[in-house]
């Protein structure tokens, strides 16, 4: 017998309905909190003699993989929705998604540049870079996460999993906006940098709109990837 939720999901447009809800999003946050304590405690208890920078990236990789595993389990086992279908992943649409991602990247660059100019010209705030004082070795490891892990994990979690759940409860406008705000606040490294915090929140808004318009996380993943890649190149140069 076919799952009725699954039927409704596959026939819906732009993910106006998904079988999971906000409680599932909260559950993942709770699990990540518990896993963070377990991973950190295990590594400290084992007294492994490893570089702190390597420890930091290992910890973040474990958390990222855990998030993906939890989402996969909830979507496929709890709600019986194929993972690729749930997030609009289609390899046949890869070229289209890349092109859409490039377009969205251009929109992001133009928008964040304008935000930077507003802060510098009208508010007297100089260019802000939260990575200036970061050790070189740690920054190199950070770039690996920013370029290869963050685009996939953050787009699947925020735009693919969280946003539709909030939209289901509050509607498209509030779903996209609240997800963008949570996305911005989750980047705690930008808390003391006003322009950067506003920029990352607006990026979340643009990526949320992209997800809603394309019904897929793929364009957002590529846009996220290109944006982070360009940001790293800019910082290094």
Folded structure, characterized:
By secondary structure, the chain is mostly helical. The chain has one domain (4-236). It has nine helices and no strands. Helix 3 (52-78) runs parallel beside helix 6 (136-170) and helix 5 (94-121) packs across helix 9 (218-236).
Q: Can you give me a brief rundown of this structure?
A:
The chain is mainly alpha-helical. Helix content is 77%, strand content 0%.
The run of helices and strands is HHHHHHHHH
- End-to-end C-alpha gap: 58 Å
DSSP, total strands: 0
Q: From the helix content, strand content and strand pairing, which structural class follows?
A: mainly alpha
Tell me, rounded to a whole number, the average pLDDT: 85
Which bin fits the share of residues in helices? over 70%
Shape: globular
Please name the defining characteristics of this protein:
77% helix; 237 residues; mainly alpha
Task: Set out the fold topology.
Layout: H1 4-11, H2 22-46, H3 52-78, H4 83-86, H5 94-121, H6 136-170, H7 172-186, H8 194-214, H9 218-236
Helix pairs in contact: 2-3, 3-6, 5-8, 5-9, 6-7, 6-9, 7-8, 8-9
